UniProtKB/TrEMBL annotation:
Pathway: Carbohydrate degradation; glycolysis; D-glyceraldehyde 3-phosphate and glycerone phosphate from D-glucose: step 4/4. The keyword Transcription does not apply. The active site is at 82 (proton donor). Zn(2+) 2 binds at residues 104, 141. GO terms for molecular function: fructose-bisphosphate aldolase activity; zinc ion binding. It comes from the Bacteria. InterPro entries: Aldolase_TIM (IPR013785), Class_II_FBP_aldolase (IPR050246), FBA_II (IPR000771), Fruct_bisP_Calv (IPR006412). GO terms for biological process: glycolytic process. This is Fructose-1,6-bisphosphate aldolase. It catalyses: beta-D-fructose 1,6-bisphosphate = D-glyceraldehyde 3-phosphate + dihydroxyacetone phosphate.
Length: 328
């Protein structure tokens, strides 16, 4: 059944686990997530970004998630809109049937300029009022995603703050988080702790100064009933980078968020963990390998099958690690 995000995150909080929220753009990704969830009896959050809407179009995304609901009627599924840049975008998603939306007011509607705190409170509260009236959940974001190594806002996949940031901007402030949640009444709060979107998060395996898991613990101590969300939480597995390079890809040295650090975050109140890049890497590695090993093949089904199996493997591993098995 289609459920609100609040329902799943409340259950996760009561039982001390976290949920991966996977981005979806096409049928193969939806298939991989659902097959993994079905195998482990895990609940599902699928989310559509602005980029996904641009690629597939909102009707194709929505109907693929509706197809998953029909094909797996026993699994609770949240249809979530990722990074809504304005109340209007969120309201359009709610109207079309999404059970959860993110109002990302950390940036202005241009998706580039850091927003004022009052603007963020204002747009987030507005979406919460509208959404809650009809049982839809709202994720808001406080703090700017970006690297504590380079002090640059997150620009990897075309959205995120421009220019150089301060450490204050790149780490969600505890007092401000308490005020923000009180004033917006959001269901889940995305926080900035040094992660960023895309494959290039850290130039080395991250340590506490550039990946501030401790900040999660501080926010959770102050806001024990708020569901925290980690964005930019792909782990960028080295073996996937190796596979991509081995079969002709060109990717620089890079590191993601180690799964064990996410698990620490979950111990301290993280309930939703956003993952897109790891599925991209898994599919790309599998397709590159397939093309090299089977140069005569040309049916997309032949190479999309190993691609979706590789994506499923990532989903299985994250569901297991975050404690979702048997929770559906
Ligand atoms: O929010 C970030 C996700 O990785 C989605 O990225 O806008 O390229 O679809 P995208
Ligand atoms: P990654 O790029 O680390 O997978 O993060 C995805 C995300 O945060 C989507 O909102
Ligand atoms: Na989100
Ligand atoms: Zn994100």
């Amino acid at each position: 059944p289609l459920v609100s995000m609040r329902q799943l995150l409340d259950h996760a909080a009561e039982n001390g686990y976290g949920l991966p929220a996977f981005n979806v753009n096409n049928m193969e990704q939806v298939w991989a997530i659902m097959e993994a969830a079905d195998q482990l009896d895990a609940p599902v959050i699928m989310q559509a970004s602005a980029g996904a809407r641009k690629y597939a179009g909102e009707p194709f995304l929505r109907h693929q998630i509706l197809a998953a609901l029909e094909a797996y009627p026993h699994i609770p599924i949240v249809m979530h809109q990722d990074h809504g840049q304005s109340p209007a975008v969120c309201m359009a998603a709610i109207r079309s049937g999404f059970s959860s939306v993110m109002m990302d007011g950390s940036l202005e509607a241009d998706g580039k300029s850091v927003a004022s705190y009052e603007y963020n409170v204002d747009v987030s509260r507005k979406v919460v009022e509208f959404a809650h009236a009809i049982g839809v959940s709202v994720e808001a974001e406080l703090g700017v995603l970006g690297s504590l190594e380079t002090m640059k806002g997150d620009k990897e996949d075309g959205h995120g703050a421009e220019g150089t940031m301060t450490r204050e901007q790149l780490l969600t402030d505890v007092d401000q988080a308490a005020d923000f949640v009180k004033r917006t009444n959001c269901d889940a709060l995305a926080i900035a702790i040094g992660t960023s979107h895309g494959a290039y998060k850290f130039t080395k395996k991250p340590t506490g100064d550039i990946l501030a898991i401790d900040r999660i613990a501080e926010i959770h101590a102050r806001l024990p009933n708020t569901h925290l969300v980690m964005h930019g939480s792909s782990s960028v597995p080295q073996e996937l980078l190796t596979e991509i390079r081995e079969f002709g890809g060109d990717m620089k040295e890079t590191y993601g968020v180690p799964v064990e650090e996410i698990v620490r975050g979950i111990k301290h109140g993280v309930r939703k963990v956003n993952i897109d890049t790891d599925i991209r890497l898994a599919m790309t590695g599998a397709i590159r390998r397939y093309f090299v090993e089977h140069p005569a093949k040309f049916d997309p089904r032949d190479y999309l099958k190993p691609a979706r199996e590789a994506a499923k493997k990532i989903c299985l591993a994250r569901y297991e690690a975050f404690g979702c098995a048997g929770r559906a």
